[in-house]
């Protein structure tokens, strides 16, 4: 048995070369063994906890998969660390003048410092150019402070290891502290900013694994009195490798497939799998079938979650396992529409305002006296729902009348979801409220209280971005707007972090300060309405007040607004004041994508119902066709994470479908309004019906054109509506189908060329289609 004093001999230069090599190999063996053991333990603990929360797949397969994949990663880190320490020891023998103890500490701190440096670097990514001077300074400070912190941690751990070798109470205390730290990392992942700030949770996963490794190190060193190394650990390492080899092989060839993937809430396994999927995304579409990914074709970028699924072709392009059916046709415009051509429009969106914190929606606190008074003389929609729980997806959807999943997304940029203006874009060929009104001669101006992406402001002649919540609400811009005008302001007050305002003091809790922010936003609305009255134009101005999404306060285990689609995050207020229209409360579900087609009809804009996913609120108020029975749809599609979710509230049911986890939740809204009890297993037929409805919901605009084409087989009937179809993957399908399967007349060449300009196809395909278009109409 080697004593504690002997353990530093190799760094003191007292060993023979052969003895030093034995110790270096022992050090590598120990680091590898520790990494394998800590990884397997972390993965197993993670899997056991995740399985207790519910899992539909093979539990034993997932348990083996979790332990194996975490062991592989832990072993990789252990091997790299051991190799680094071995190399460092060899280098130190060549420089006997160096202080051995401090040099060894620096060597041990280096891998940890690299891990800590990765956190701010990964978070900043491509956003560096967008950061202000203060934030850049904070990032640079983090890059300095975190490696220094790594050194301090290493020094503390080195001292703790010496204490642990003494055994007794000190070892027990150190083990208990390491276990407590690992438990705190796990709890923080679940309850601190759940679903938000990805790098924060990656850091917690890394901390969890490191603390488990430290626990094992304390146990071993206290038991033997040796540093990590020695023959026993080499034998133990060999035994572990032999035992894990079959599982590791299976994990890469079978268990990495999607049928044994685990819950995305798992701390360690989900992070490892997410990073691994990004490296085996062979077709670059943002998803993979390996490591629990939802892709169903790894070598075809046109197939994957969130992609366009063409009905009736027998190909599951969006990998949801459902062949979509044609949705019901749009209702004929035989309902009454109050014509208000030339009226001004004021659109007010309030960030993170959930409907049940508004007085007119039944809230007991006096948070919104202005909105309550406005609702008394307006149309109030009791069940209005946002189409996403994120501002950067919800606002483009509102302005265009398109579902977030139908907006263009750039899959070529791995960090695209951090640059949301590029991820969910309002393209130049997509009609939106500001562009339609600008074409009509309106003065279009916008005032927002934080940066939400330049593409969001396409069509606005003047844009004011006032960073910080406590800036004016665009009063000056509204005063100076030329009639007719379209004025949009986005008030950021209720967005976290919440501030308490003395004039609206409801308490000190988060929800109290949130209400205080709502009251301030309501006061800002009153100032805007006062400007209209003072200018004497309130009788010819349409006012729409709503929110981009709601806010969560622990109802489903999270805070703020994260990547889930529950009631508290989607139910928002919607108040529409049209001069001359009698006030009314409407109880059926409506969507924020309905606002754009409603205003287009009311203001007689150059748009058709086929330009929008939403339907006119006038049709829903009149109860025409299926318009008032279709419920409310929402989706979240982000390639990084990844997140592929759809939600539909229709009738008494809400279905939340996670395409990544292949799990559908079903809630009975009559018995469970807050959506706390999943009843999908009790009503599988309802779940299947709503799953099919979710798949076909985004097809409404294209349905009319393609149904006419399928009936008549007249390609010109399809091309006559081509310019109104904004789903760009649909454009690619139209081009390919028409050019490959139809004999087209010469007059089809111009609309086909316009389609090609809008296509997302790559250049080799574009060149081939360009040649086919040039031959259209020729013998």
Question: Could you please describe the fold and organization of this structure?
Answer:
The protein has 4 domains: 5-270, no CATH class; 304-328 and 631-698, 2-Layer Sandwich (Arylsulfatase, C-terminal domain), CATH 3.30.1120; 344-379 and 386-586, Alkaline Phosphatase, subunit A; 713-774, no CATH class. The protein has helices spanning 9-12, 17-52, 59-93, 100-124, 133-165, 168-191, 198-224, 231-255, 268-279, 369-376, 391-400, 420-423, 433-439, 475-480, 510-535, 567-570, 595-602, 617-622, 684-696, 700-712, 715-719, 728-741, 749-758, 763-774, and strands spanning 344-350, 379-385, 443-448, 462-465, 485-491, 541-547, 552-553, 559-560, 571-572, 574-577, 584-591, 632-638, 643-650, 653-658, 663-668. It is an alpha/beta fold. β12 (632-638) and β13 (643-650) form a beta hairpin. The chain is built from 24 helices and 15 strands. The strands form 3 sheets. Strands 1, 2, 3, 4, 5, 6, 9, 10 and 11 form a 9-stranded mixed sheet that branches. The termini are far apart. Helix content is 47%, strand content 11%.
Brief characterization of the structure:
By secondary structure, the chain is an alpha/beta fold. The chain has helices at residues 9-12, 17-52, 59-93, 100-124, 133-165, 168-191, 198-224, 231-255, 268-279, 369-376, 391-400, 420-423, 433-439, 475-480, 510-535, 567-570, 595-602, 617-622, 684-696, 700-712, 715-719, 728-741, 749-758, 763-774; strands at 344-350, 379-385, 443-448, 462-465, 485-491, 541-547, 552-553, 559-560, 571-572, 574-577, 584-591, 632-638, 643-650, 653-658, 663-668. A hairpin with a 5-residue loop joins strand 7 (552-553) and strand 8 (559-560).
């Amino acid at each position: 048995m080697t004593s504690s004093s002997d353990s530093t001999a190799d760094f003191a230069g007292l060993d023979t070369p052969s003895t030093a090599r034995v110790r270096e190999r022992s050090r590598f063996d120990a680091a590898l063994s520790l990494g394998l053991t800590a990884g397997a333990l972390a993965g197993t603990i993670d899997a056991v906890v995740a399985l207790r929360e519910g899992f539909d797949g093979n539990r034993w397969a997932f348990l083996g998969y979790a332990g194996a994949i975490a062991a592989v990663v832990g072993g990789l880190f252990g091997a790299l660390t051991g190799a680094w320490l071995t190399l460092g020891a060899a280098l130190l023998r060549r420089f006997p003048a160096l202080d051995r103890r401090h040099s060894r500490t620096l060597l041990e701190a280096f891998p940890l410092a690299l891990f800590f440096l990765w956190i701010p670097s990964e978070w900043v990514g491509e956003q560096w150019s967008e950061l202000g001077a203060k934030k850049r300074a904070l990032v640079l400070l983090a890059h300095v402070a975190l490696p220094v912190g790594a050194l301090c941690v290493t020094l503390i751990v080195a001292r703790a290891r010496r204490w642990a070798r003494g055994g007794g109470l000190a070892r027990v205390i150190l083990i208990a502290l390491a276990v407590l730290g690992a438990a705190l990392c796990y709890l923080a992942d679940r309850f601190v900013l759940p679903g938000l700030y990805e790098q924060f949770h990656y850091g917690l996963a890394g901390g969890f694994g490191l603390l488990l490794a430290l626990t094992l190190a304390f146990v071993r060193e206290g038991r033997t009195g040796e540093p990590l190394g020695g023959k026993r650990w080499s034998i133990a390492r060999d035994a572990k490798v032999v035992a894990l080899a079959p599982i590791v092989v299976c994990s890469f060839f079978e268990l990495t497939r999607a049928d044994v993937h685990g819950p995305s809430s798992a701390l360690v396994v989900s992070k490892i799998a997410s990073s691994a999927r990004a490296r085996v995304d062979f077709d670059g579409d943002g998803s993979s079938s390996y490591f629990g990914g939802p892709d169903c074709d790894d070598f075809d970028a046109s197939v994957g979650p969130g992609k366009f699924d063409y009905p009736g072709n027998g190909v599951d392009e969006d990998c949801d396992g459902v062949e979509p059916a044609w949705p019901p046709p749009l209702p004929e415009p035989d309902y009454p529409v109050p014509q208000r051509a030339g009226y001004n429009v004021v659109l007010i969106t309030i960030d993170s305002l959930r409907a049940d914190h508004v007085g007119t929606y039944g809230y007991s606190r006096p948070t919104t006296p202005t909105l309550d008074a406005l609702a008394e003389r307006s149309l109030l929609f009791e069940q209005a729902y946002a189409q996403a729980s994120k501002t950067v997806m919800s606002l483009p959807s509102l302005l265009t009348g398109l579902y977030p999943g139908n907006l263009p997304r750039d899959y070529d940029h791995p960090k695209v979801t951090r640059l949301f203006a590029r991820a969910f874009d309002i393209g130049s060929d997509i009609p939106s409220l500001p562009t339609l009104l600008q074409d009509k001669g309106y003065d279009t101006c916008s005032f927002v209280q934080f940066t939400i992406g330049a593409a969001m402001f396409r069509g606005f002649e003047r844009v004011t971005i006032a960073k910080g919540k406590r800036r004016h609400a665009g009063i000056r811009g509204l005063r100076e707007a030329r009639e007719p005008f379209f004025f949009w302001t986005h008030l950021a007050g209720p967005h976290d972090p919440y501030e308490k305002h003395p004039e609206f003091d409801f308490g000190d809790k988060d929800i109290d300060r949130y209400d205080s922010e709502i009251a301030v936003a309501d006061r800002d609305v009153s100032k805007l309405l006062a400007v209209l009255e003072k200018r004497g134009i309130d009788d010819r101005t349409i006012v729409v007040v709503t929110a981009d999404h709601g806010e969560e306060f622990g109802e489903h285990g999270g805070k703020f607004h994260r990547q889930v689609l529950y009631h508290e995050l989607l139910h928002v207020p919607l108040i529409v004041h049209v001069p001359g229209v009698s006030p009314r409360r409407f109880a059926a579900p409506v969507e924020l994508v309905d606002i754009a087609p409603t205003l287009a009809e009311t203001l007689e804009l150059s748009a058709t119902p086929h330009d929008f996913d939403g339907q006119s609120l006038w049709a829903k108020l009149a109860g025409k066709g299926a318009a008032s029975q279709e419920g409310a749809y929402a989706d979240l599609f982000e390639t990084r994470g990844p997140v592929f979710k759809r939600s539909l509230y229709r009738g008494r049911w809400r279905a939340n479908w996670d395409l990544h986890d292949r799990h559908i939740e079903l809630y009975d809204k009559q018995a469970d309004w807050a959506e706390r009890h999943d009843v999908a297993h009790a009503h599988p037929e309802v779940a299947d019906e709503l799953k099919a409805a979710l798949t076909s919901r985004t097809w409404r605009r294209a349905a009319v054109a393609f149904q006419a084409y399928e009936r008549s087989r007249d390609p010109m009937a399809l091309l006559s509506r081509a310019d109104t179809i904004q789903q760009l993957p649909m454009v690619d399908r139209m081009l390919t189908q028409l050019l490959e399967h139809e004999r087209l007349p010469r007059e089809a060449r111009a609309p086909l060329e316009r389609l090609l300009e809008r296509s997302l196809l790559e250049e080799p395909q574009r060149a081939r289609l360009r040649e086919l278009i040039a031959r259209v109409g020729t013998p």
